[in-house]
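Running this now, will post back.
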Amino acid sequence: MENNYKILLVDDEPDILEFLSYNLKKVGYIVFTANNGKDAIKLAKQQNPHLIILDVMMPEMDGIETCEELRKIPQLSSTIITFLTARNEDYSQIAGFEAGGDDYIAKPIKPKVLVSRVGALLKRYGKADVDIDTGSDNIIRLGDLVIDKEKYTVKNGSEELSLPRKEFSLLLLLISKPQKVFTRDEIYSAIWGDNIVVGDRTIDVHIRKLREKIGEDYIKTVKGVGYKFIDGNN
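Update: finished.
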């Protein structure tokens, strides 16, 4: 099996890097490795990986901090970031989502499961996390916002915004039906799916980050229910 997908593995434990690298190279992926966050950021800028698998617990710069820095790099806006976490690290999983991560893989993990999970993650590359019907036009203009669904970019006036995948998907969901109140359950189901458990705080953090970038007036909170998008004409 051969493919052109590039994967960056980041972990401070050599045995884990060797295990992940061996099993992913065996099925044809192009694999790069780093054993700390700073080297990972440099390597990511050089290689533009499609997927980054990032350990949470690392010295100096941990996985959460590394993810936050990676999400500031515009060229990596479409890169999928998934965390490696121990099964009981619920806090790390939530913190990972808040930092801009797309998913998490619980360790220890069997080789076949690893390959399956990676394949499923890479199917998302270059796409929103969900198939949201916002019409046939790739360019959507709402007030000062210009959203390019094909290029996966958002501009607020002349400023190009860097939106992680989950924030982009959340924005697409809200603009798909302006004025509609999306309940928390609807947002959970559409953006995270039924196989990932996130708390109310995770949604709130994503909404807050979106507001910081696009402006406070576009997204309204409906107390006790959810959120709705207000376009420039309403």
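Residues 200-214 form the longest helix (15 residues). More later if anyone needs it.
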